[in-house]
Amino acid sequence: MAQRRAARRRVETVASGVAELVPDPDRDTAFTLLLDGAPQSHVDLADPTYLQFEYVRRIAAAIDLAAPPGRPLRALHLGGGALTLPRYLAVTRPGSAQRVVEIDGPLVELVRRELPLPERANIRVRVGDAREAVTGMRDSGYDVVVLDVFAGARTPAHLASVEFIEQVARVLAPDGWLVANIADGPPLRHARAQVATIRAVLPEACLVADAAVLRGRRFGNVVVLAGRTPPPVAELTRRAAGDWFPGRVETDLDRFAAGAAPVPDATAIPSPAPPATLFGNRK
């Protein structure tokens, strides 16, 4: 069995580093995508609704609540990886029109070749920079925008400013939602500044994260749901509490931001690098 899994492992150099597709030892049709040793995506080809990473399940829960069950959505994914969430949405909301923007062309080709997309999935992948792509898109074209872009293990500075969020808000429908993945650790300066930045443009918001991350005890993911109408806090809270690894929904974002100011282009910086030991037990 170990030899068969090793034979299915793929390692290639792509634009953003060394990509590895590692078979899941517990699920015969599943793979984890690593970039330079850091886990980026997990995909089960036989069951795209299986989401292994907890922050991805939190993003999916927010997408689930964006419209009644089964209704197709117009979705824009900034950051592609192994296309986990586009696959999920294609199965849970058939007929959804989805566009993915991923800067790493060789990675896109690797994923398309080794992890084929579901049949009849309306998923278009564009190779390019997320901000440049959004700037050229039409107004109000999407119901959901998922922001999950990492260069290595850090979100680039030009995707962490008010000016960029203004462009994202422009392409969102009036009742649309931005779902953003923010990675940070103690003392959460970047996450607090990003919450302030997003709310300066899309003021109705909440966030979901592990309680230990919110308390500043460890590095992790903060998922922000933001728009122009109140978020579905009660249902999101129920789903977060019922997860394999329960999360907490925070609605008092003035308190969470703790006086942080929105970040303009002139002072934007990348998200902090994760601790060197964070992924050591996942390789």
UniProtKB/TrEMBL annotation:
Short name of one Pfam family: Methyltransf_30
Keywords: Polyamine biosynthesis
A GO BP annotation: polyamine biosynthetic process
Stretch list, region Disordered: 264-283
GO MF terms held by the record: oxidoreductase activity, acting on the CH-NH group of donors
Family annotation (CDD domains): AdoMet_MTases (cd02440)
Domain MnmC-like methyltransferase: 115-179
Entries under InterPro entries matching the protein: MnmC-like_methylTransf, SAM-dependent_MTases_sf
Protein name: Spermidine synthase
Organism: Actinoplanes octamycinicus
